[in-house]
Amino acid sequence: SQTIHQWPATLVQPVGSPLSLECTVEGTSNPNLYWYRQAAGRGLQLLFYSVGIGQISSEVPQNLSASRPQDRQFILSSKKLLLSDSGFYLCAWRSSGGLDTQYFGPGTRLTVL
Amino acid sequence: GQNIDQPTEMTATEGAIVQINCTYQTSGFNGLFWYQQHAGEAPTFLSYNVLDGLEEKGRFSSFLSRSKGYSYLLLKELQMKDSASYLCAVREGDSSYKLIFGSGTRLLVRP
Question: How many whole angstroms separate alpha carbon A4 and alpha carbon B44?
């Protein structure tokens, strides 16, 4: 069966510091991968998605970037965090050859102070 | 433009039935999803509609009318554990399989 992992689970970072969040998927090959951010009490905002290694599409201009160095690894990064980057970051995967459903990882709660 | 509307909050009583509505206006349509999200946790998949009509899964049912841009999630025999946010999401028609999410409806089930 497929599982999705994210780490760290929680993170507190000062403004201006760098960020690296990691997401890995097990039990599937060539998944579509997605990064979402959820501000407190709000819906999910799609940040990036990837349909293959090295292929990244950005949905919202911001100071974040994403990379997919391996088939089942998706990384979200920033060189300098802003206060507005605080939120709940969720990674999701979808089987490239299967149903349309996206399945979410446990998330990373980021607080920028 | 893209717009998905859901009520912000709803309250219902344990054992009752509640209907959560979702209306959408998107540039393309290739399916509508409902997710459940408990506070502090990730969303979990509940249902998927791509054709008009009702899909039933135990206590949960979801309805879609593509011509009206409308869906609802019906929860029967409410339990306290059903207190959560319910997210409506629409899949656009391109190859990215992107989902556009509404802001979610926070449901409170009272004894």
Answer: 13
